[in-house]
Amino acid sequence: MVEVTEKVVEEGKKKDAFLGIDIGSVSCKFVLMDTNGNLLTSVFLRNRGSPIDSAKAGMAELRDNIEQSENLGDYEIRCCGTTGSARYLTKAIVGADLAKTEIIAHAVAA
């Protein structure tokens, strides 16, 4: 399931966005959020048995969501974080800024 929430921004100005990726043994989740914590778009996929294939598929679907949206092109991804059992591999594949365990991610979010 993919949800897209479009935000209207001033013409010519880029807004900051942050990408979170969770690739585990069963599923993959990708979320793009703005600076206020609003969900801009998300992707949920069942794991394809390979973290590399899952990361590629999720990023491709995320890119498609952005390209199909009228306003998501107004955002620029400033930071990317990964979590899940394949966090370090995913970090290397997508060039993420950080990789944290789910326990740390939950604690910080709380």
Note down, in words, how this protein is organized.
This protein has 110 residues and is an alpha/beta fold. The chain has one domain (15-109): ATPase, nucleotide binding domain (Nucleotidyltransferase, domain 5, 2-Layer Sandwich). It is 31% helix and 33% strand. A 5-stranded mixed β-sheet has the order 3-2-1-4-5. Strand 1 (15-23) and strand 2 form a beta hairpin. The longest helix has 18 residues, at 51-68. The protein is globular and about 40 Å long. Residues 1-6 have low confidence and may be disordered. This is ATPase BadF/BadG/BcrA/BcrD type domain-containing protein. It comes from marine sediment metagenome.
What is the domain total for the residues?
1
Which class best fits the helix and strand makeup?
A: alpha/beta
Overall pLDDT confidence: 85
The profile of the biggest β sheet is: 5 strands, mixed
Helix content: 25-40%
Looking at CATH, the homologous superfamily is ATPase, nucleotide binding domain
Shape: globular
What is the chain-wise order of helices and strands?
EEEHEHEH
Q: Low-confidence parts lasting 5 or more residues at pLDDT below 50?
A: 1-6
Number of strands: 5
InterPro entries: ATPase_NBD, Dehydratase_Activator_Redct
Protein name: ATPase BadF/BadG/BcrA/BcrD type domain-containing protein
Organism: marine sediment metagenome
Question: What keyword list fits this structure?
Answer:
110 residues; alpha/beta; Nucleotidyltransferase, domain 5; five-stranded mixed beta sheet; 3 helices; 5 strands; disordered N terminus
Give the gist of this structure.
The protein is of the alpha/beta class. The chain has helices at residues 51-68, 87-94, 102-109, and strands at 15-23, 27-34, 39-46, 75-83, 98-99. It has one domain: 2-Layer Sandwich (Nucleotidyltransferase, domain 5).
